[in-house]
């Protein structure tokens, strides 16, 4: 089995790019960020204080997360409810950053993430895939872009969905999330030693996809 780990900060386009690359190569795409978002959503819906790590840990056995593929699309089920759209809301994104810093949560979800790479060729994206989840992945990529570009892309994404977007707030949230992700005690965001860094600040989406497909082919042939 071939495993491709794509790490990087919030808003770097990891999910979009990983999905496109997986389609081109015929790999299974696993959006690990969605798993953390689903965990955060479960805490929000059940009024679990995410600053109380003991409370979150006690709540984890009540969470059942499954990933299914329907018509080629990945769907996230939280206790049998499809929450694929709901977990993309901004408040859930920020909550996911908080809940992902809890060691018990990372341990709880680690087994689920690794199980996918044992049965299929996968592209998995997140914050610590190359460093913690799949340290033996054949290909490791660190995808990044300037905070301003990431915020602009997020604004466009929301506007395309017909939602209003405040650039300054989104930029603030991205910078704050970068800080949270790189400074957390457990599995902080960082580039794996043998990863290839791809800065997409001045690149178009097709250029990024072509670049990453090229890297994967070079390192697996």
Main attributes?
221 residues, alpha/beta, five-stranded parallel beta sheet, 9 helices, 50% helix, 17% strand, globular
Task: Summarize it.
The protein is an alpha/beta fold.
Low-confidence stretches: none
Mean pLDDT: 92
For the terminal residues, how far apart are their CA atoms?
A: 13 Å
Helix content: 40-55%
Give the overall silhouette. globular
- What is the gyration radius calculated from CA atoms? 17 Å
% residues in beta strands: 15-25%
Strand order of the largest sheet: 2-6-1-7-8
Order of helices and strands: EHEHHEEEHHEHEHHEH
Q: How does the major sheet shape up?
A: 5 strands, parallel
Task: Please explain how this structure is put together.
This protein is α/β, with parallel strands linked by helices and 221 residues long. The chain is built from nine helices and eight strands. It has a five-stranded parallel β-sheet, sandwiched between helices. A three-stranded antiparallel β-sheet has the order 3-4-5, covered by helices on one side. A hairpin with a 2-residue loop joins strand 3 (65-70) and strand 4. It starts with a strand and ends with a helix.
Task: Show the helix and strand layout.
Layout: E1 3-7, H1 14-25, E2 28-31, H2 32-45, H3 53-59, E3 65-70, E4 73-78, E5 81-82, H4 90-99, H5 103-117, E6 122-126, H6 129-133, E7 139-144, H7 147-160, H8 167-183, E8 196-199, H9 205-220
Parallel strand pairs: 1-6, 1-7, 2-6, 7-8
Antiparallel strand pairs: 3-4, 4-5
Helix pairs in contact: 1-9, 2-4, 7-8
